[in-house]
Design brief:
single chain; 64 residues; mainly alpha; elongated
């Protein structure tokens, strides 16, 4: 009787997560450092996609 091998799920590589302090040093966000300092929480990891979405949502927000 043949033994079946377990099929392993294809793991997608996770996007790297960066802390607030790391993101504030990146040249990519040089012009938004003051905004990111306010929007991001200390001790939490953020991916580029999440940070870009936070900035985009903030910039599209209405002025009160």
């Amino acid at each position: 009787m043949a033994v079946r091998k377990k099929q392993t799920e294809a793991k997608t590589p996770e996007a790297p997560a960066f802390t607030k302090d790391q993101l504030l040093t990146f040249d990519k966000y040089r012009g938004r450092r003051d905004l990111l300092g306010t929007l991001l929480e200390d001790g939490r990891g953020y991916t580029y996609a999440v940070v870009d979405a936070l900035v985009d949502n903030f910039m599209k927000g209405k002025v009160k």
